[in-house]
């Protein structure tokens, strides 16, 4: 069966949108750190969301997705090994970002970062942003064709369910808000279509929460 006939596979759609949220969110953190009006807690929430989700994303690729691809296409092993090495280097940048203290005592300006903390956070955020963008530029030319040619809809559905079931619950509403920004309504709906009804009923509230938090990060209305 030609899974690329007429439209892209669901695997490529979901992966592309996830990658775009990573590009958008890492850039947003860099920009938000440069805005003195953005509170410490808002920066900490986005930082923690990024660290958890980026780690989980590449761990599920290394542990679950790469073996699926290699079963059908062993010739791409070298390329996937190179991507896994980039995941390891990204982990170093994520460790640095995670180690920036953002939950300590408030400074004289209430819940806003002092200049030293802001500088350290921005440097770490820039390193993660640049690492993510470079990595995705290397990964997508390998991964998208592999998903189209070697991963069946059933395999992808099972993989996607495992990813959702194991995603740590850290600021998950931000993922929903970011997906809405990078995807079309039809693409986003295709991701949420199999969501359990109780969770799906929460989407409007989660979208509202995400919109409010993203406005704060962008300095809108402050």
Walk me through what this model shows.
- With 222 residues, the chain is mostly helical.
- Helix content is 75%, strand content 0%.
- The chain has 9 helices and no strands.
- It has helices spanning 10-33, 40-72, 77-98, 115-150, 153-166, 172-182, 185-192, 197-200, 203-217.
- α6 packs across α9 (203-217).
- The longest helix has 36 residues, at 115-150.
- The protein starts with 9 loop residues before the first helix and ends in a 5-residue tail after the last helix.
- Mean pLDDT is 90; it is low at 1-6 and 105-109.
- This is Hemerythrin-like domain-containing protein.
- It comes from Streptomyces albogriseolus.
Write a concise keyword list for the protein shown above.
about 220 residues; mainly alpha; Hemerythrin-like domain-containing protein; disordered N terminus; 9 helices; single chain
């Amino acid at each position: 069966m030609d899974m690329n006939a007429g439209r892209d596979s669901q695997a490529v759609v979901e992966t592309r949108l996830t990658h775009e949220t990573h590009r958008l969110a890492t850039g947003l953190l860099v920009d938000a750190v440069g805005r003195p009006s953005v509170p410490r807690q808002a920066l900490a929430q986005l930082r923690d969301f990024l660290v958890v989700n980026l780690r989980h994303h590449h761990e599920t690729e290394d542990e679950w997705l790469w073996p699926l691809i290699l079963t059908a296409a062993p010739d791409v092993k070298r390329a996937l090994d190179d991507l896994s090495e980039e995941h390891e280097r990204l982990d170093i940048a994520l460790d640095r970002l995670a180690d920036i203290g953002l939950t300590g005592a408030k400074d004289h300006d209430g819940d806003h970062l002092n200049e030293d903390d802001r500088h350290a956070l921005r440097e770490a955020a820039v390193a993660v942003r640049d690492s993510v963008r470079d990595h995705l530029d290397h990964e997508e030319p390998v991964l998208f064709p592999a998903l189209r040619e070697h991963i069946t809809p059933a395999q992808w559905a099972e993989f996607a369910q495992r990813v959702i079931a194991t995603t740590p619950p850290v600021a998950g509403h931000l993922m929903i808000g970011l997906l809405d920004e990078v995807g079309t309504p039809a693409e986003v709906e295709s991701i949420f279509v199999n969501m359990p009804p109780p969770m799906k009923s929460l989407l409007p509230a989660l979208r509202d929460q995400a919109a409010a938090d993203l406005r704060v990060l962008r300095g809108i209305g402050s």
